[in-house]
Amino acid sequence: MRYFRVLHNFDAQDGVELTVKKGETVFTAENEVREGWIKVEVLHDPRRRGFVPFNYLRETTESLAREQEEGSRGIGKELGGMSVASMTRQPSAIPRETSVTFTSGALDYGDRLQNMYGVGASAPSPVSQRSRSAEQGMKGVNENSTTTAIKRVVTGTLPPSQKGPSSPPNAADPAPERSLLSNPSAIVEAFMKNELHFKQLIRQRQDALAQMRTTVEEAMSELVACKEKNVTLARKLRELDQSVEKERGRWKERIMEEKAYISRSMSSE
């Protein structure tokens, strides 16, 4: 169990979050840190339990002291009933998460007890094995914490005073949105892609408008030409009608002359 002191005030915005004040002492309800959030419980107040941003907390020396005390008690109980036949028994009293200083001390203490009870030097002490495994596990945790801190610095994560807390882990939240919001370069890239697509649409619209304008101008020019042809055809039709009327008048005059000539011929005979 790890103890932390609250560095900044935090107001809960969801049912799974926990409102804490600066200076309060909390301990872990779950040791796993998920996406920058950790589930804690306020000391001496078991009703106050929920998720708090991990960067709002700082681990106190009280947790290390309690771990050392619990580890010492567990080792004392186990070594009180230890025998040569029970050397191969799996460890159960040593906590899984111990500090490097405590594991080193437990290692030396276990070796001294091994020599005291006369255990063969060829078989390593179970306490030493457990201490070494705990020390390796603690080193792995420290390396993971260092890697996480470096990733936060590279991605430009702001401190709590400049950045509001992110939302707690929720199974309903889609993973792509969280990755997009936590990656400013992806937001900039998506914005640039949208802007490029918008410019392409504007260009296509301008090209379509220009093509429509050209088509309308061609249609207007053809309409003007048709009007001119219509005027020309109307003039020619009028001229043709006038010519036909003149020719009809001539034919009437000639017919009348022929009739008069025939009448005179018949009367003379």
From TrEMBL:
UniProt entry tagged with the keyword Iron-sulfur: no
Region (Disordered): 120-179
Domain of life: Eukaryota
Span of domain SH3: 1-62
Keyword Nucleotidyltransferase part of the UniProt annotation: no
Listed Pfam families: SH3_2 (PF07653)
PROSITE patterns: SH3
Keyword field: SH3 domain
InterPro entries, alphabetized: SH3-like_dom_sf, SH3_domain
Protein name (Swiss-Prot/TrEMBL): SH3 domain protein, putative
